[in-house]
Structures are given as C-alpha cells and as structure tokens.
Amino acid sequence: MAEDSDAERTEPASPRRLEKAREDGDVPRSREIATFTVLMTAGACLWAFGGMLVGRLGATLQSGLTLDREQVYNPNVLLERIFNDVVNVMLACLPIAGAIMLVALASPLLIGGWLFSTKAFTPNFMKLNPMKGIGNMFSTNSLIELLKAIAKTLVVGAVAWVVIMGQKEAMLGLAVEPLNAGSAHAGAMIAKAFLVIVGALGVIALIDGPYQLWHYHDKMKMTRQEVIQESKESDGNPQIKGKIRQMQREMARGRMMQNVPTADVIVTNPTHYAVALKYADGQRGAPRVVAKGIDEIAAKIRELGAEHKVALLEAPALARALYKHTDIDEEIPEKLYSAVAEVLAYVYQLRAYKKGEGEYPDRPNKLAVPPEMDPLNPASQQKPDTNNGVLQ
C-alpha cells in the first residue's frame, strides 16, 4: 500500500478483504507480547523448578568429573557414561523447555491467532526492489518501529540500572558469604532482577498489542472505489442485476398471462386494476388469484380475457382489495369470501343463461368489501402496491 494513498482510505476493511489478507499470511502480530509471555514463562519455570534443576545438574556435573579405572581404560564404558549424563541434563531441562515451547506456540492466540499460509513461502521478487526497500526504510511504520525500539531499550535499561544499583551493596557482600548461602542469595537477586525487567517488558507489551491491532486495521482500510468494486465482484454489477430482475419480471408476467384464459372471472376497476380469479368445482380451499395488474398490465389482462371470453365484472373496491391483499396463485383473504361468492354466483348464472338454462342475472352492485381492505378507503392504513402487477 502506498503511503500517499492512506489519506483516501476512509472505509473499514470488509470481511472479504481481511480474509484475503489472512490467506496471504498477513495478520496482526505483536513481538512484544510473544517476548513477554515466553520470558515470563521461563522465569516462572525457573522459580518453580530451579531447585530441582540445580540439584540434578550438580549431580550430573559431579558424576561427570568422577572417573574410575574402568572408565579410563574402557572407552565403551566412558561413552556410555557421557551418554547417560547428556540424557540426564536433557531430562532436567525438559519441563522448562516444554513449558516455554507450549507458551511460544500459544502466544499467537492472544493477537492474530494461529495461521499457516503457503503463500508466505512463495518467492516474491517485488521484495527485491531496492527503491521499494528504501521507501520502506523511510516510511512512517519504520519510524514508529525505530521509536519503539529506542523506548524499549531505554525502559529496560533504566529498570535494570535501578535494580542493579538497588542491590549494589548486596552484590559486593556476596564475596564474603559462604558458598551455599552466597549461591542462594545470588540466585534470589537474579530472580528479582529478572522479574522486574520482564515486568517492564509487560508494560511495553500492553501498549504494543492494542497499537498493532489499530495499525493493522488502519493499514487494511479501503477507499470508496475499492468498496464499490468489491461489492460489484461479490454481489454482481448493479446494472446486470437490474437487467436480470427485469428479465425475471418479464418471465413471471408471461407465465401470469398464460393463466388468464383459464380464469372464471376478471374483476376490474374498470381501467386501473384487473384481477383474474379461478375456482375449480370440487377443489379444496377458496378461489385463487391467477393474474393481477394495474394500468398497462390490467389492460393486457382485460384484452386476453375478452379474447378468450372470460367474464369481466366491474367492482372497483373488490378489485383494489384483491390486488392489495393477495399475491399470484394465493387464495383470497377470508374477509373477501362473501364478496367473491356473489361474483362467482353471478358468473355461474351468466354461463347458465348463455346455455339457455335460466334468466339473465342481475349484476352485483353492492359487494361486501370491508372498508379496511380497500386501499383507497380512509379506514385502511396501507398504501396500494404500485409494482405494475409483477410478482413481488
């Protein structure tokens, strides 16, 4: 990332960008936290197992310096003795070494988590670019790392100086103490100095951890153009998606129009709304809406209905209510059962009349449409749908 483009990066990194960076082996890391945890573990292990370690190493040293006649004149016995001593030293150091290894492996969980990326092993010849290397040397990040190293040196040096000078008299007194007492006293002073210095590193680690997280997420920020481009790549170009939705609407409209000739009746507004209903004799459930539309779609439905001799009935309130509250291939609402029943009764009587089996029926004028079902009635709190009759 170019330093001069940082001012333009104002958008937080997207999950996709963070995942890609992780795949490339780029995650937040804090060497100060790792150093502190390992050193603190080593100090705690020395404090807990130091006596045992000194005892076993002392015994091994004494055994190694003790030679008998057989060992001098038999090389095989001497080699076996050396091998046993080496094994004893390794076993003595094993608890401390194992604990340090486990903590070193677990410390990445504190920030960044475990990560194994093969891309980190892939040769990148761009890193051999001398101009880029010089630019990195004088970058803001390099300056911050330099200041951090200087601060760490000063803090650790100052703490070490205070600890050493505080024990100056005790250190000089070690020369006149007995061997065992002096050794124990010296070990206690070393442990105290170690813990105080490591504690100073802990303060640095507490500051460096949040800083590394902030720096990483700041480095991962994106420009608005990158966000738009990523959105296009992941979700598709908005123009293409709009074209697809238009094609889907046209296909849905075509399937809807195929159902119009099978309808029993088309309820109209008379010009703005048109809803085609179908109820097959013996079917379970209520009548269904097989097509609906407003304006141009409504006109097309009426045209197809007239072409296939489907009954048309002008009932503005019922047409609006059916259009608003029922989708394609859904049963009509229960509150409209009574009104639709009157319409179907009129249609069936009209069919019988055309067959010469009855009188011409009276056209229903006052259909029982609840006021709250009519979108244009003040009792209704919902606005009419204006999606041009296309499937939602």
Describe this structure in words.
With 392 residues, this protein is mainly α. It is 60% helix and 5% strand. It is built from 13 helices and four strands. A four-stranded mixed sheet has the order 3-2-1-4, with helices on both faces. A hairpin with a 4-residue loop joins strand 1 and strand 2. Helix 2 runs antiparallel to helix 4 and helix 2 runs antiparallel to helix 8. The longest helix has 41 residues. The protein is elongated, with a radius of gyration of 43 Å.
User: Assembly state here?
Assistant: single chain
Sketch the topology as an H/E string, one letter per element. Answer: HHHHHHHHHHEEEHEHH
Give the structural class.
mainly alpha
Number of E strands: 4
Helix content: 55-70%
Strand order of the largest sheet: 3-2-1-4
User: DSSP strand (E) fraction?
Assistant: 5-15%
Mean pLDDT: 79
Report the sheet with the most strands, covering strand number, pairing sense and barrel closure. 4 strands, mixed
| Overall shape | elongated
Number of DSSP helices?
13
- Rounded to an integer in angstroms, the radius of gyration calculated over CA atoms is 43 Å
Distance between the termini: 45 Å
pLDDT < 50 stretches? 1-7, 382-392
Keywords:
mainly alpha; 13 helices; 5% strand; 60% helix; four-stranded mixed β-sheet; 392 residues; 4 strands
Write a concise synopsis of the structure shown:
This protein is mostly helical and 392 residues long. It has helices at residues 15-23, 31-65, 69-73, 75-106, 130-137, 140-166, 168-173, 179-219, 224-235, 238-259, 296-307, 316-325, 337-354, and strands at residues 265-268, 273-278, 288-294, 311-314.
